[in-house]
Amino acid sequence: MTDLPTPLSLDRAGPAPLHMQLAGQLRGAALSGALPAGTRLPGTRTLARDLGVTRGVVEAAYALLSADGTLEAEVGRGTRVAAGLVKAERMTEENTQEPAFPLPGWFLPRPLPHAARQDTRPGLHFRSGVTSAAMLDRRAWARAWGAAARTELPGDYADAAGLLELRAAVAAFIGRSRGLAASADTLLLTSGTLSSVTLIARAILPAGATVLYENPGYRSGRAVLEDAGHRLLPLAVDEQGPVVEHLPPAHAAYVTPSHQFPLGGRMSLARRLALLEWARAHDALILEDDYDGEFRYDVPPLPPLASLGGGGRVLYLGTFSKVLSPAVRTGFIVAAPPLIQALGRERQLSDGGHASALQHALLHLLSSGEVDRHVRRARRWHGQVRAALTEELAPLSPLATLGGIEAGLHVCLHLAPPLDAEEVSARLAAQGVYAETLQTFTFSGEPRNALVLGYGGLTVREARTGAQKLTRVIRTLAAEKSAGERPGPTAPATVPPRL
Description:
This protein is of the alpha/beta class. The protein has 13 helices and 16 strands.
């Protein structure tokens, strides 16, 4: 072998071409210092003979390394390792290995918000924020993607706000399903509610804005606003949704009036009007998140804040994640045209907008009436699951009472003392059934003593099974606590012995 201070070994059975293998090994040796700057490499014929390859392999490797600056070739001096190459990290004096990927000292990694962490434990999960695609018409889904595939691809970038025809179709759907008048000019497509909050945080709110935020509330949205540098003030909620009396000044308020997340209350009309008046008096915006407004049970819909004369002060956020599936990755914002233009600019700079094929598939589903038919099927499906869940849990009163059952895809089970939600959740998990408490939804004050029971991803049988196990846990724990509070048998009095 040629007298080089580093070994070379080529694998003829490997996936990489021989000249790429040779170039990679020589580059690595140069960057690590094994081949110092100025080291002269053997001629192509000599190295090819020693490695048992054709001369063309070595010539191609040298050409690659000369092109990227690893090697320098001069007439009369041969091919040498270039000067000034940055060396990779080497062993320290303590003989410990430096990190494989050294990072800047100012970089501070941040953990995922609790809601974004996937719980992969096997078992039955009462998970909020998810839905089932079991009632989706697979043939209609396939036809929609077939229609999208037959659509001619554009040669340039599309409108970041979304395909004009799709925005018009979504606006018409909102009018049918939620009673909100909208048009293509007042609507922008996003990748879901979280995408909508991110765009608003960056494009609409001023730097360091003060935002009233429901407490407890939507965890991931809270993380987005805080990461953007905005200041959040807790907005109290009760069985009628956000409490709007004596609100302090702020730039915006984030609310879920149709089905408060996670407690489930519906904001009364009087409170809706009062919140709009607060926004007018304090020159503020309202972020109205109607994340599951299609699902109502035994109650009439309440008018969206955006339909009550809010003018340009309400940004209405919706999503198809609950209507169809989170995999569709499509939400929308309805707002005044100047706000839509600002949001469109931000979407253009962030990701350029939705993929064309997805937009055409969704357009086909909407224009064919399949989304409306699917909503009717989904409402019946989820209504049956909800009925099974409430039927099983209703007998627990007064130990536990259900809240937020009139709408949406989750309920809140409020526990009476001395039951403790964290203890109930832990006991339930030991049986393979998982339900969250309000601990991580709450960012100010003590969390309420309740469990959040999401049923959007469950079948009727799963809902009954989970509810029955939950019932047994609650009754057992209540009996244990009751027994522990009873006074024990009285010990006999000690009689002193006679003298």
